[in-house]
C-alpha cells in the first residue's frame, strides 16, 4: 500500500505549516518539522500548544491552511484519514477513537476488515488481532467488548489498529496519560520493538520523564510554533520544561509537614459489590483534617469504586462512612456534598463537566440552590457570573468569557474549572482523582500548589492517582489498594521509593491486618487510646513488628 | 374467555397477524437501520405514503405491478436520501426534517393523485392490481399452518425476511459493520477512513426502501389502490416499535409483530359489546404495560445481578 | 380553492353557490355527492359554483367559515354535517342578505345556540338515513333467510362496519337492526364494528381487515358505512366470495374491478347531491323554505336503494317485492323506523 | 506580558465573534425563510397558478381583517403553548412526543370543571385552568416517571399514551360527556363565567376567538424562560439534558429533574387544552387540536427550545398556517400545494448549515485579515465587512 515512499527523505515532515481553525484559532503557526524514519520523536508543549493539531494534519484529519505535509519523503495532499492510512500513517488519538459496543478485534480491523465479497470474517479478524498482539507484545483479549476492558487494553487496541493497517509511521497522542506505570513500561517496550523494526514514532506526552525515557529526539512547541528540536540524550527535564513555557519551571512544590487535625473521614468495614469493575471488601481507614492521604494501586484495583462511594455516586454494600460528624453511608450525592465532600472525578469528560454549558454554569453545579447564588428560590445570573469571574481569576483559567462553553477549553483549563469548583467550596474532605491527567507541566504544578494549599487550610485530602511520583511528592500518608482491599499503609512517606510501593501494588508484599488498622477506633486489634504511630518506622521495613499494636 | 382463546388460536387470526404486522415490520426495520446509522427517521410515515401512492399510480398507468412496486420503493428511497441530505448537507434537525418530509408526502401525494386522476380521494378508480400472493403447494394442505402461511402476499414474506436480512447485514457484512460504527461513534469511524456520510446515505436509502416496501404493501398488497393519507399513523407505530425493540433487529421484530398481533386482536374483539374506542386502545395499552414491565424487570435484574456478588 | 376573487356580485349575474367543506373532497360518498349535486346545478341550472375545502383539522374550521362568509363572492353558502351548525348559526345573522344551506344537520331555529335572527336565511335539510338502514337490514335478513346468496347459503349472520360511533353512523346502524328484526332476524346475528383510529373514514387496509374478520365470523354480507375505509370491504368480499351493499352512492357503478363489483348486491343511497340539486331548483322558483328544517327520506327519494339489472339478477323476485313493500310501509308512515337522534 | 496581551485580544475577538454570530444567525434565518418562500413561489408557478396573488394572500392575508388577526393570535396561543410544552422536556434531553395526550387530558379536566362545577366568577376561570394544568401534568408524569425511574423509552411511552388518551377522549365525547339531546358530537358549553374573555370584548375590535389566553401564553413563556434561566430547577433540567452524569455527580437528582421536566411540560400542554375548551371552542369537540401537537414540536425545535424564541417561532408558524388557509380560500391554489409549501418552508428553515457556513466564512476572512502585516492593533472590528470574494475563494479551494 505504501510503495510510493521515497526512502531517502524524512518519514514525515511539515514545511511551513499553518493551521487556522474555522473559529479563528490559529493552532499551528509556520511549523517546519522533519522526522527521519526509524526514530522515536517526542513532541512536547503546554496544553493547547498545537501538538494534537499538528498530528491531525499528518493524519489527514485536518488540512493545513498553508504549507505542506510530507509523508514518506514526498509532499502529500491528505484529504482524509483514508489517504493518510494508505500512505502508512497510523494514529492513536488523545481521546480514544474506539466503538464501545464492538470487540477489540472488531475495532482493530474496522475499516479494513478481512473477508470476501463485502462480508466480515470474524474469525480471521480475531486471529489477525491475536497474531499482531503477539508480535508486538501488546496483550489484548480480541473477543472482549471495548466498553468492558481496561483503559490500558483500549490503548493497546488502538495501537494494534495502526499496526493492522501496516503503519510505518505511528502517532501516539498522549498514550500514557491513562496508563499505569506497568502498562507504560510494556507500551514502551513494544514501541521500542516497533522502532527497531523500522517504524517511525511520534510520541506526545506531558510527562517529561517518560519523554526522556523513550524518545530519541524531542521537538518542543509553544503557542503553535516549533521552538526547537533537541537530542534527548543531551537534555534534561528542566531544560525541556524551560523551552516549553519560556521560563524555568519545576514540579517540586514546597510542602511543610502536615499538621493533622481531627479525623474527618472515617471508613469502617466498607464493602461494595460492583456488577462491573472491582468490588471492595473490608476497608478501614481514616483521613484527618490537614493531611493528604494518597491511594496507590495498579489501576482497576478499586480506586474508582472507592472514590465514587465516598462521593455518594455508589452505595456501599456494608460498613460505615463518616465525614466529620455526618454518617454519609446512606446519603445521596447531594447529602455528601452537604456533609462537606468535594470530588474531582477521574474522567472530566464523562461526569466532570457539562461540555456544552458555559463555564459559569459548570462552576455552580454543587451550589446552584444556595445563597449567595440562589435566593428565594431564584438563581441570580449576575451572581453566577460574578462567581465564575472570581474563580476564573483565582484559578487562572484561560478563557475570554465565563459564557464560553467548557467544550471550547483546552484540557488543562477544563481540569482547572473542575478543581476550582471543588476547592472553592472549602471542602472538609476532598477526593482528588487523577487530577493531573493530560495536563501540562504548568497546570500540573498549579494543581499541586492548590492541593497543598487546601490541605493547609484544613481539608482532609484523599489523593488517588496512577502516577506514583505524584503520590509520593504530595502525600503525607499513603495507602495501597490491591484487589479491592488495603494491602499497605505508610504513615510516613519521607524516603519512600516508588519501587517499595510498587511491591505492595503488585501484591509481592503486604502489611498485616493489625498494621493496617493500627490506631483506628472501632476496628479489631486496636487500642483506641493509643495514638497512631508516626515517624517511628523507616519506610523500608514495613513489617516491623514493634509497630503493630498488641492484639 | 374461551371464545377469545378460540379466536387467538384460529388460523384466520394468525394469518391476520402476519398481514397486519407486515407494514409495521418493514417500516420498523427501516427505522432501525436509520437509527443505527445515527439519523432518526421520523419520515417513515411519509416514505410509506409516497411509496403507496407511487406504486398504485405507476402500476395503474404502466399495467405492471412490478414496475409499480419498484417505483414506489424508489421514491421512498429517494426520500430517505433526501432526509440524509437535509441532515448531512444542510445540518437540519433530523426530527424537524422528518416532520417536514411527512407534510411534503401528504401534500405531494394528494396533489399528484388529483392532478393525474382528477380525484381527491385516491386511486380507487385506477386499476392497479396487487402483488402476487405466494401459494405454498404441499403446505397449504396442512390444517392450521397451511391456512396461516399459504396465500400470504409476497411482501409479507419479504417483511419476515427483512429481520434476518438486517441482522445478517449488521453483524456479518462490512457495510453493516461500518453502519453500526458510524451510528455509534462517527469520529472513530471517520478516523479509520470510513466515509461516514456515504455510509449514512446508504443507511437512510435502505431505511427508505424498507419503509417503501411497507407502503407498497398497503396500496398493492393489502388493498389494490391508494387513498389519501392511507398510512394512518402506521409509521409512528413502527417508530415506537424501533425503540420498544431496544434498537436490535430481533427485538424490533418482536415489537412490530406484537403490534400486529394486538391490532389483529382488537379487530377480532371489535364486535363485542364494548365501546369501540375503548377496544381500539388495547394494542397501545398492552404496549405501554409491556414497556413498563420490561423496563421494571430489566431494572430489577440489574439490581439482582449486583446482589449475589456480595454474598 | 375556487377561482374567484373577493369581488362583488358576479359579472355574469348568475347566482353563486359556495360549498364549504369541513373535510376534503374525494370521500367517495358524502361530500363528493354534495359536490356532484351542485356541479349538476351549475351546468344545468345556471349557477356559479365555488368549493372551499377546509381539511380535517378542526382548528381551521371556524376561521374558515368566517372567512368564507365574510368574502362577498357568493349568494348561497352550503355546508354540511352537524359540525357546522354552530358556525352557521353564528354567521347567518351577520349576513342577512345571504342564504345558507345546511345539509345533513339543522341549525337551532329556536335561537338557543346562535341563530339570533331565528336563522331566517338558513335552509336545513336532514336525511333519514335510518330508513335506508332499515331497508338494508330488511334485505339482508331476507337474503340470508332465503339462502339467496350463492356460496354463503349456510351463513345467517350479517355485518355492518361503521367508521366511528357517531350519531349519523349510528342512525344507519339502528335502522339496519330494526329492518333486520322486522324481516325476522335476530339481533345477535348482526355484527357491528367500527374502523376507528387515526383515519376512520380513510383507512381501507383496516377496513379490509375488519371485514375479513367479520366474514371469518360467519357474516354472509357486510355493509360498510365508513367512507373510503369501505373500499377495503369490497376487496375482502371478493376474496372471501361473500357479499356487500354499497352506501351513499351506487358503488356497483363506481367500482372498477369486476370481482368486487359483483359482490355489491345493491347500494343504499343517501343522496345528498339530489337534495342539494333540488334545493337549487327550488331556489330558482323561490320555493326553498328558509328558516326551517326539512327532513327527507324514502318518501322524498333522498334515501333509497339501487334497483338495477344486477340487483334483479341476484335478488329473487319475491324478496324484491317484499323489500318494495317494506319501503312503501316506511314511506306511508305505517312503519316508524327508530333513529339514533 | 504577551500572554495578557493575547488574552485581551482573545477576549475582544470572542465578543466580536459572538455578536457577529447573533447577527448572522438572525439574518440567515430571515434569508432561509426568504429562500423557502422563493421555492414555494416556484412550486406554485410550476403548477400553473398565479403565484403573485397566492403570495399576497399568504403574506398579507392574515393581517387583512381584525378577525383574521384574531384567528392568527388564537392559533398561535395554542401552538406556542404546545411548543413550550415539549421544549421543557427537550431541554432535559427527553424526546417527549406526548403533548397530544397532555392536551386532551387538560381539555377534559378543564371542561369537566367548567361545565359541571358551579363556581364564583373569577374562580370559574381559574379553577378549570388549574385543573387542566394538573391533568396535563399528571399525563406528563406517567411517561416521565416511567423514563426516570424505570428507564422505559419515552418516545414509545408518549406515543402510546397519545393513542390511548385520544381514543378515550373520543369515547367520552361521543358517550358520557356528549351534550344530551344534541345531534352533534360535542359536550355542553362551559358556563359563561368560565369562558376566557375574548379580546374583542377588551379591545372592542372583532378579534374572533382570540382571548386572554394570548397574553396568558406570553406570561407562560416568560415564566418558563425564567424557570430555565433563573431557578435552581431550571438549572437542574438544563444540566440533566446537557450531561446527566455530570448532573448526578454534582448532586442533582437526575430522575427527579427528568420527571419535573415532563410534569411542567405536561402542565403547559394541559393549559393549551384549557385554552381550546374555555377560549376557542367553549366546549369539548372531537379532534380538538388537529395537527397542532406535532407542529408544536417543529416550533420548539425551530426555536432551539428557548421559551422566548418559541413564542416568535409559534407566531411565525401560525402566521404561515393562517396565510396558507387564506391562500387556499382566496386563490385557486389547492390545499395540497399549501401543505407542500409549508413543508418546504419547514425543511429549509431548519437547515442550520447555511448560517454556520456563513459564520465560518466570516471567521476565515477574519483570520486571513488579522494575519496580514498591519495585524495586531486593529483587531477584529476593522475586518468585519470582510472580503466575500476572498472568503469564497478559500471555501471553494477546500
Ligand atoms: N474546540 C475549541 N473550539 C473553540 N475554541 C477553543 C477550542 N479549544 C480551545 N479554544 C479556545 O482557544 C484558546 C486557546 O486555548 P489553549 O488550549 O491554547 O489554552 P492554554 O492556555 O494552552 O490552556 P492550558 O491551560 O491547557 O495550557 C482558548 O481561549 C480557548 O477558549
Ligand atoms: N476543532 C477545533 N476547533 C477550534 N479550535 C481548536 C480545535 N481543536 C483544537 N483547537 C484549538 O487549537 C489549539 C491547539 O489545540 P491542540 O489540541 O492542538 O493542543 P495540544 O497541544 O494538543 O493540547 P493538549 O496538550 O491539551 O492536548 C488550542 O487552542 C485548541 O483550543
Ligand atoms: Mg490546552
Ligand atoms: Mg492534544
Automatic annotation (TrEMBL), chain A:
What name has this protein been given in UniProt?
ABC transporter ATP-binding protein
Supply the source organism for this entry.
Streptomyces ossamyceticus
Q: Sorted alphabetically, which Pfam families does this protein's record hold?
A: ABC_tran
Stored Gene3D superfamilies: P-loop containing nucleotide triphosphate hydrolases (3.40.50.300)
Output the superkingdom of the source species: Bacteria
UniProt keyword terms in alphabetical order:
ATP-binding, Nucleotide-binding
State any single GO MF term.
ATP binding
Every ABC transporter domain range: 12-248, 265-508
CDD domains for this protein: ABC_Carb_Monos_I (cd03216), ABC_Carb_Monos_II (cd03215)
Which InterPro entries does the UniProt record give? AAA+_ATPase, ABC_carbohydrate_import_ATPase, ABC_transporter-like_ATP-bd, ABC_transporter-like_CS, P-loop_NTPase
Ranges where the record places region Disordered: 518-551
* SUPFAM superfamilies attached to this UniProt entry: P-loop containing nucleoside triphosphate hydrolases (SSF52540)
Q: What is the lineage of its organism?
A: Bacteria, Bacillati, Actinomycetota, Actinomycetes, Kitasatosporales
Automatic annotation (TrEMBL), chain B:
> What's the protein called, per UniProt?
ABC transporter permease
Quote the PANTHER family the UniProt record gives: ABC TRANSPORTER PERMEASE PROTEIN, SUGAR ABC TRANSPORTER INTEGRAL MEMBRANE PROTEIN-RELATED
The alphabetical list of record keywords is: Cell membrane, Membrane, Transmembrane, Transmembrane helix
Membrane topology per the entry is:
Multi-pass membrane protein
List localization entries. Cell membrane
Predominant localisation class: membrane
Q: Which InterPro entries match?
A: ABC_transp_permease (IPR001851)
- Domain of life here? Bacteria
The record ties this protein, via CDD domains, to:
TM_PBP1_transp_TpRbsC_like (cd06580)
Q: Which residues cross the membrane?
A: 65-88, 95-117, 154-170, 201-225, 231-247, 252-272, 278-296
A Pfam family cross-referenced in the UniProt record is BPD_transp_2
Automatic annotation (TrEMBL), chain D:
The record, for Pfam families, names: BPD_transp_2
Listed InterPro entries: ABC_transp_permease
Which cellular compartments is it found in? Cell membrane
| Annotated spans, Disordered | 367-398
Q: What is its main location?
A: membrane
Q: Where is the composition biased (Low complexity)?
A: 370-384
The portions of this protein that span the membrane are 21-46, 102-119, 150-169, 212-229, 292-317, 337-354
Its membrane topology, per UniProt? Multi-pass membrane protein
- What are the record keywords, sorted? Cell membrane, Membrane, Transmembrane, Transmembrane helix
Any idea what this protein is called?
Answer: ABC transporter permease
User: Which organism was this protein described from?
Assistant: Streptomyces ossamyceticus
Query: Source taxonomy lineage?
Result: Bacteria, Bacillati, Actinomycetota, Actinomycetes, Kitasatosporales
Amino acid at each position: 500500500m505504501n510503495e510510493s515512499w521515497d526512502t531517502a527523505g524524512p518519514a514525515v515532515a511539515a514545511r511551513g505549516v499553518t493551521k487556522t481553525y474555522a473559529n479563528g484559532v490559529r493552532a499551528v503557526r509556520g511549523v517546519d518539522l522533519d522526522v527521519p524514519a526509524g526514530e522515536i520523536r517526542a513532541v512536547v508543549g503546554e496544553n493547547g500548544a498545537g501538538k494534537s493539531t499538528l498530528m491531525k494534519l499528518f493524519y489527514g484529519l485536518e488540512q493545513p491552511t498553508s504549507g505542506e505535509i510530507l509523508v514518506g519523503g514526498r509532499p502529500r495532499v491528505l484529504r482524509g484519514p483514508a489517504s493518510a492510512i494508505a500512505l502508512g500513517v497510523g494514529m492513536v488519538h488523545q481521546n480514544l477513537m474506539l466503538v464501545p459496543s464492538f470487540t477489540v478485534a472488531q475495532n482493530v480491523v474496522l475499516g479494513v476488515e478481512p473477508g470476501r465479497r463485502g462480508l466480515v470474517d470474524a474469525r480471521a479478524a480475531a486471529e489477525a488481532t491475536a497474531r499482531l498482539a503477539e508480535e508486538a507484545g501488546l496483550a489484548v483479549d480480541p473477543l472482549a467488548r471495548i466498553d468492558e476492558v481496561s483503559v490500558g487494553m483500549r490503548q493497546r487496541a488502538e495501537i494494534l489498529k495502526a499496526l493492522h493497517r501496516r503503519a510505518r509511521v505511528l502517532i501516539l497522542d498522549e498514550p500514557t496519560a491513562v496508563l499505569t506505570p506497568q502498562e507504560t513500561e510494556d507500551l514502551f517496550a513494544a514501541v521500542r520493538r516497533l522502532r527497531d523494526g523500522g517504524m517511525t514514532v511520534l510520541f506526545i506526552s506531558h510527562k517529561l520523564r517518560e519523554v526522556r525515557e523513550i524518545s530519541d529526539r524531542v521537538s518542543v512547541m509553544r503557542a503553535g510554533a516549533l521552538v526547537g528540536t533537541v537530542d534527548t540524550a543531551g537534555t534534561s527535564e528542566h531544560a525541556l520544561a524551560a523551552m516549553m513555557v519560556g521560563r524555568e519551571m519545576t514540579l517540586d512544590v514546597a510542602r511543610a509537614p502536615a499538621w493533622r487535625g481531627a479525623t474527618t473521614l472515617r471508613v469502617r468495614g466498607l464493602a461494595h459489590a460492583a456488577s462491573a469493575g472491582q468490588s471492595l471488601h473490608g476497608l478501614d481507614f481514616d483521613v484527618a483534617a490537614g493531611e493528604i492521604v494518597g491511594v496507590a494501586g495498579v489501576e482497576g484495583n478499586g480506586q474508582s469504586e472507592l472514590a465514587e462511594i465516598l462521593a455518594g455516586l455508589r452505595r456501599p454494600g456494608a460498613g460505615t462512612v463518616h465525614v466529620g460528624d455526618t454518617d454519609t453511608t446512606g446519603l445521596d450525592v447531594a447529602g455528601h456534598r452537604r456533609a462537606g465532600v468535594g470530588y474531582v472525578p477521574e474522567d472530566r469528560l464523562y461526569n466532570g463537566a457539562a461540555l456544552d454549558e458555559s463555564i459559569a454554569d459548570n462552576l455552580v453545579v454543587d451550589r446552584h440552590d444556595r445563597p449567595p447564588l440562589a435566593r428565594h428560590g431564584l438563581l441570580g445570573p449576575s451572581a453566577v457570573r460574578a462567581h465564575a469571574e472570581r474563580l476564573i481569576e483565582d484559578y487562572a483559567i484561560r478563557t475570554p468569557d465565563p459564557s464560553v462553553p467548557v467544550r471550547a477549553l483546552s484540557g488543562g483549563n477544563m481540569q482547572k474549572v473542575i478543581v476550582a469548583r471543588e476547592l472553592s467550596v472549602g471542602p472538609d474532605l476532598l477526593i482528588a482523582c487523577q487530577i493531573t491527567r493530560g495536563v501540562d507541566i504548568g497546570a500540573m504544578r498549579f494543581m499541586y500548589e492548590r492541593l497543598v494549599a487546601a490541605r493547609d487550610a484544613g481539608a482532609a485530602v484523599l489523593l488517588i492517582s496512577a502516577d506514583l511520583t505524584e503520590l509520593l511528592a504530595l502525600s503525607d500518608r499513603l495507602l495501597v489498594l490491591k484487589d479491592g482491599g488495603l494491602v499497605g499503609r505508610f504513615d510516613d512517606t519521607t524516603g519512600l521509593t516508588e519501587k517499595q510501593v510498587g511491591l505492595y501494588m503488585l501484591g509481592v508484599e503486604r502489611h498485616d491486618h493489625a498494621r493496617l488498622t493500627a490506631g483506628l477506633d472501632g476496628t479489631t486489634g486496636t487500642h483506641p487510646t493509643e495514638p497512631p504511630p508516626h515517624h517511628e518506622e523507616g519506610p523500608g521495613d514495613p513489617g516491623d513488628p514493634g509497630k503493630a499494636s498488641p492484639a | 374467555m374461551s371464545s377469545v382463546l378460540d379466536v387467538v388460536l384460529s388460523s384466520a387470526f394468525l394469518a391476520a397477524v402476519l398481514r397486519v404486522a407486515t407494514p409495521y415490520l418493514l417500516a420498523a426495520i427501516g427505522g432501525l437501520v436509520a437509527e443505527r446509522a445515527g439519523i432518526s427517521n421520523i419520515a417513515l410515515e411519509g416514505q410509506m405514503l409516497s411509496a403507496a401512492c407511487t406504486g398504485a399510480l405507476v402500476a395503474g398507468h404502466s399495467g405492471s405491478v412490478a414496475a409499480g412496486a419498484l417505483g414506489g420503493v424508489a421514491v421512498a428511497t429517494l426520500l430517505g436520501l433526501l432526509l440524509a441530505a437535509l441532515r448531512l448537507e444542510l445540518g437540519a434537525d433530523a426530527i424537524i426534517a422528518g416532520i417536514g418530509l411527512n407534510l411534503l408526502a401528504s401534500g405531494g401525494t394528494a396533489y399528484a393523485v388529483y392532478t393525474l386522476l382528477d380525484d381527491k380521494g385516491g386511486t380507487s378508480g385506477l386499476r392497479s392490481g396487487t402483488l402476487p400472493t405466494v401459494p405454498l403447494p404441499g403446505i397449504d394442505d396442512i390444517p392450521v399452518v397451511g391456512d396461516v402461511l399459504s396465500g400470504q402476499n409476497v411482501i409479507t414474506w419479504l417483511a419476515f425476511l427483512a429481520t434476518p436480512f438486517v441482522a445478517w447485514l449488521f453483524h456479518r457484512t462490512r457495510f453493516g459493520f461500518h453502519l453500526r460504527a458510524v451510528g455509534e461513534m462517527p469520529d472513530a469511524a471517520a478516523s479509520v477512513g470510513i466515509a461516514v456520510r456515504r455510509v449514512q446515505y446508504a443507511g437512510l436509502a435502505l431505511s427508505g426502501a424498507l419503509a417503501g416496501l411497507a407502503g407498497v404493501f398497503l396500496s398493492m398488497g393489502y388493498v389494490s389502490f391508494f387513498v389519501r393519507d392511507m398510512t394512518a399513523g402506521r409509521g409512528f407505530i413502527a417508530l415506537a416499535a424501533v425503540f420498544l425493540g431496544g434498537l436490535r433487529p430481533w427485538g424490533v421484530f418482536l415489537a412490530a409483530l406484537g403490534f400486529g398481533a394486538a391490532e389483529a386482536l382488537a379487530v377480532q374483539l371489535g364486535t363485542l359489546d364494548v365501546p369501540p374506542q375503548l377496544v381500539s386502545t388495547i394494542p397501545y395499552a398492552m404496549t405501554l404495560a409491556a414497556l413498563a414491565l420490561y423496563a421494571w424487570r430489566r431494572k430489577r435484574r440489574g439490581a439482582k445481578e449486583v446482589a449475589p456478588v456480595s454474598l | 380553492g375556487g377561482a374567484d376573487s373577493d369581488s362583488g356580485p358576479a359579472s355574469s349575474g348568475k347566482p353563486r353557490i359556495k360549498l364549504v367543506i369541513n373535510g376534503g373532497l374525494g370521500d367517495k360518498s358524502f361530500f363528493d355527492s354534495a359536490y356532484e349535486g351542485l356541479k349538476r346545478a351549475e351546468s344545468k341550472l345556471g349557477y356559479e359554483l365555488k368549493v372551499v375545502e377546509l381539511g380535517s383539522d378542526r382548528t381551521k374550521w371556524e376561521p374558515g367559515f368566517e372567512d368564507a362568509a365574510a368574502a362577498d363572492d357568493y349568494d348561497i353558502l352550503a355546508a354540511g354535517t352537524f359540525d357546522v351548525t354552530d358556525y352557521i348559526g353564528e354567521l347567518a345573522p351577520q349576513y342577512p342578505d345571504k342564504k345558507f344551506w345546511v345539509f345533513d344537520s339543522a341549525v337551532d331555529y329556536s335561537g338557543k345556540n346562535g341563530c339570533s335572527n331565528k336563522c331566517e336565511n338558513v335552509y336545513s335539510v336532514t336525511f333519514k338515513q335510518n330508513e335506508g338502514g332499515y331497508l338494508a337490514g330488511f334485505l339482508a335478513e331476507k337474503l340470508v333467510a332465503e339462502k339467496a346468496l350463492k356460496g354463503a347459503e349456510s351463513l345467517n349472520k350479517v355485518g355492518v362496519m361503521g367508521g366511528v360511533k357517531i350519531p349519523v353512523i349510528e342512525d344507519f346502524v339502528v335502522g339496519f337492526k330494526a329492518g333486520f328484526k322486522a324481516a325476522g332476524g335476530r339481533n345477535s346475528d348482526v355484527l357491528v364494528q367500527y374502523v376507528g383510529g387515526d383515519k376512520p373514514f380513510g383507512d381501507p387496509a383496516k377496513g379490509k381487515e375488519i371485514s375479513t374478520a367479520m366474514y371469518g365470523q360467519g357474516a354472509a354480507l357486510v355493509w360498510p358505512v365508513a367512507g373510503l375505509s369501505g373500499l377495503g370491504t369490497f376487496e375482502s368480499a371478493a376474496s372471501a366470495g361473500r357479499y356487500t351493499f354499497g352506501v351513499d352512492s351506487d358503488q356497483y357503478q363506481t367500482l372498477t374491478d369486476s370481482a368486487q363489483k359483483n359482490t355489491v348486491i345493491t347500494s343504499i343511497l343517501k343522496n345528498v347531491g339530489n337534495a342539494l340539486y333540488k334545493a337549487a331548483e327550488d331556489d330558482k322558483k323561490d320555493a326553498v323554505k328558509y328558516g326551517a328544517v326539512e327532513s327527507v327520506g324514502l318518501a322524498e327519494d333522498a334515501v333509497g336503494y339501487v334497483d338495477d339489472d344486477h340487483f334483479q339478477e341476484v335478488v329473487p323476485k319475491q324478496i324484491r317485492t317484499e323489500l318494495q313493500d317494506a319501503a312503501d310501509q316506511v314511506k306511508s308512515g305505517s312503519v316508524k323506523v327508530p333513529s339514533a337522534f | 506580558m504577551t500572554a495578557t496581551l493575547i488574552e485581551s485580544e482573545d477576549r475582544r475577538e470572542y465578543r466580536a465573534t459572538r455578536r457577529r454570530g447573533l447577527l448572522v444567525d438572525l439574518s440567515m434565518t430571515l434569508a432561509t425563510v426568504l429562500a423557502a418562500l422563493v421555492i414555494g413561489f416556484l412550486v406554485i408557478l410550476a403548477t400553473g397558478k398565479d403565484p403573485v396573488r397566492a403570495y399576497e394572500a399568504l403574506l398579507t392575508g392574515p393581517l387583512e381583517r381584525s378577525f383574521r388577526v384574531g384567528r392568527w393570535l388564537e392559533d398561535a396561543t395554542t401552538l406556542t403553548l404546545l411548543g413550550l410544552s415539549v421544549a421543557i422536556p427537550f431541554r432535559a434531553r427527553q424526546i417527549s412526543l406526548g403533548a397530544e395526550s397532555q392536551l386532551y387530558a387538560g381539555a377534559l379536566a378543564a371542561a369537566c370543571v367548567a361545565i359541571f362545577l358551579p363556581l364564583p366568577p373569577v374562580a370559574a376561570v381559574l379553577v378549570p385552568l388549574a385543573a387542566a394544568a394538573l391533568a396535563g401534568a399528571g399525563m406528563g408524569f406517567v411517561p416521565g416517571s416511567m423514563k426516570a425511574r424505570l428507564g422505559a423509552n419515552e418516545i414509545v411511552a408518549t406515543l402510546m399514551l397519545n393513542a390511548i388518551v385520544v381514543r378515550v377522549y373520543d369515547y367520552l365525547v361521543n358517550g358520557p360527556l356528549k351534550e344530551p339531546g344534541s345531534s352533534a358530537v360535542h359536550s355542553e358549553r362551559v358556563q359563561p363565567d368560565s369562558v376566557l374573555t375574548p379580546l374583542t370584548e377588551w379591545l372592542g375590535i372583532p378579534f374572533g376567538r382570540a382571548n386572554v389566553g394570548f397574553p396568558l401564553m406570553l406570561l407562560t413563556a416568560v415564566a418558563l424562560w425564567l424557570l430555565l434561566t433563573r431557578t435552581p430547577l431550571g438549572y437542574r433540567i438544563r444540566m440533566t439534558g446537557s450531561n446527566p452524569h455530570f448532573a448526578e455527580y454534582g448532586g442533582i437528582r437526575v430522575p427527579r429533574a427528568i420527571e419535573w421536566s415532563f410534569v411542567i411540560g405536561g402542565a403547559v400542554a394541559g393549559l393549551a387544552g384549557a385554552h381550546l375548551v374555555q377560549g376557542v371552542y367553549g366546549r369539548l369537540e372531537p379532534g380538538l387540536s388537529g395537527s397542532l401537537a406535532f407542529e408544536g414540536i417543529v416550533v420548539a425545535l425551530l426555536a432551539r427550545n428557548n421559551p422566548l424564541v418559541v413564542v416568535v417561532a409559534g407566531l411565525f408558524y401560525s402566521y404561515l398556517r393562517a396565510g396558507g388557509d387564506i391562500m387556499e380560500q382566496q386563490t385557486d391554489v389547492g390545499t395540497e400545494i399549501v401543505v407542500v409549501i409549508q413543508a418546504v418552508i419547514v425543511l429549509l428553515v431548519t437547515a442550520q448549515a447555511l448560517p454556520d457556513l456563513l459564520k465560518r466564512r466570516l471567521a476565515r476572512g477574519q483570520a486571513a485579515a488579522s494575519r496580514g502585516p498591519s495585524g495586531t492593533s486593529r483587531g477584529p472590528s476593522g475586518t468585519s465587512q470582510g472580503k466575500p470574494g476572498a472568503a469564497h475563494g478559500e471555501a471553494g479551494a477546500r
